[in-house]
Design goal:
With 383 residues, the chain is an alpha/beta fold. 41% of the residues lie in helices and 13% in strands. It has twelve helices and 13 strands. The structure holds pyridoxal-5'-phosphate. Pyridoxal-5'-phosphate binds next to helix 4 and helix 5.
Length: 383
């Protein structure tokens, strides 16, 4: 799915030089590298402030804490997402309220979100997830958030540098934008790391305290925070890689365009046409036109449920990486059973969980490799 060694090879000297600086300074927590990264990410994402922390999961946790999510409150989010989106809500003693997705973009469906919000008495935040690197349909969600007087917290873990249909960058419009630098994300650290963006100086200051156990000054705590600081080692590596991010995103888009064309030639349609409409049994992802920009964290195809796992096994047998993101909606996770959801409650989420498959789209993918991936899929589905 990913070739991190190929990504590292041309960066080797720069990464080692950056690490050498950190080790010579022996300044491992906070400090110049971390502040430098926070400034650079804020500028890259078009926001006033960025606050580093330990992971994307903690970015969500800290943003929720800053927004007052706690016991007895509710947070609206999609079910078709990585576990952390809702797991962090639960850990704060609050309840995730799941809405369904749009079957074309796989992002939070505004109508479903509105219906779910109607069932909430103590709604505290709405969390669109910019899944696979495409920004969710934010305007109707902001309208809903204004009506309910709650903040939008963007889970932008998969979407650094992506733009919405108005051209705004992921993480720049919500009260908070939460990013992950997990090694396999488009901008990956050498371990766990994350960051939270915000345009509000007070919110940034609050996050700065919350990630440092709530300390206002040394040994003075007016609030209880967590230990979730960003290491200088991670910041130094990320600063080297940030300079390459736009180029990598462009290569991902070029790979996506290649697949779009190769599959269209075989008769595939984009995902706005249901699989049931017949034709070649594959649908390609649909991306909104400019100024929107998809960063293709994943390139996700859709095939009939009865063929999905067989196709996956077939590709894996040929040494072609592929992965199902996500095989189970969060509303059907055993740990969330107490919430009372049942099979059939979120039909689009459940269908996507059965029919989607992510194929390699990373920046280091060679032309021969992507040709082999497309050919293997087309040949198999043509049978
Ligand atoms: C990766 C991811 C996270 C969590 O980030 P970590 O750095 O792994 O903790 C949260 N939400 C989404 C949508 C993600 O893809």
């Amino acid at each position: 799915m990913l070739d991190l060694r190929a990504q590292y090879a041309p960066l080797r000297d720069d990464v080692r030089g950056a690490l050498e600086r950190v080790f010579e300074s022996q300044h491992f927590i906070g400090g110049e590298e971390v502040q430098g990264l926070e400034r650079e990410i804020a500028a890259y994402c078009g926001v006033a402030h960025a606050v580093g922390c330990n992971s994307g999961t903690d970015a969500l946790l800290l943003a929720f804490m800053a927004a007052g999510v706690g016991v007895g409150t509710q947070v609206l989010c999609p079910s078709f997402t990585f576990f952390a989106t809702a797991g962090t809500v639960w850990r704060l003693g609050a309840r995730p309220v799941f809405a369904d997705i749009d079957p074309v973009t796989y992002n939070l469906c505004p109508e479903s979100a509105r219906r779910a919000a109607e069932r909430c008495e103590r709604l505290t935040a709405i969390v669109p997830v910019h899944l696979y690197g495409q920004v969710a349909d934010l305007d109707p969600l902001f309208a809903l958030a204004r009506e309910r007087n709650v903040p939008i917290i963007e889970d932008a873990a998969q979407a650094i540098g992506a733009r919405d249909t108005s051209g705004a960058l992921a993480g720049s419009r919500g009260a908070f934008g939460c990013f992950s630098f997990y090694p396999t994300k488009n901008l990956g650290a050498a371990g766990d790391a994350g960051i939270i963006t915000t345009n509000d100086a007070e919110r940034a200051a609050l996050l700065g305290r919350l990630r440092n156990l709530g300390a206002e000054t040394k040994y003075l705590h007016r609030e209880v925070g967590v230990n979730s600081r960003l290491d200088a080692v991670q910041a130094a590596v990320l600063r080297v890689k940030l300079a390459h991010l736009d180029g990598w995103s462009e290569r991902r888009r070029a790979n996506a365009r290649f697949y779009d064309a190769a599959f269209a030639e075989a008769g595939a349609r984009d995902s706005s046409i249901p699989l049931a409409a017949g034709g070649f049994p594959l649908r390609t992802p649909r991306s909104a036109p400019a100024p929107a920009e998809h960063i293709y964290h994943q390139y996700v195809i859709r095939v009939p449920a009865e063929r999905r796992d067989v196709l996956r096994d077939h590709l894996l047998q040929q040494g072609i990486g592929c992965e199902v993101y996500y095989p189970i909606g969060l509303h059907q996770q055993p740990c969330f059973e107490p919430l009372g959801y049942r099979a059939g409650d979120l039909p689009e989420t459940e269908a996507a969980a059965r029919e989607t498959l992510a194929i390699p789209v990373h920046a280091e993918l060679e032309p021969e490799q992507r040709e082999r991936v497309a050919a293997a899929i087309v040949t198999y589905l043509s049978r």
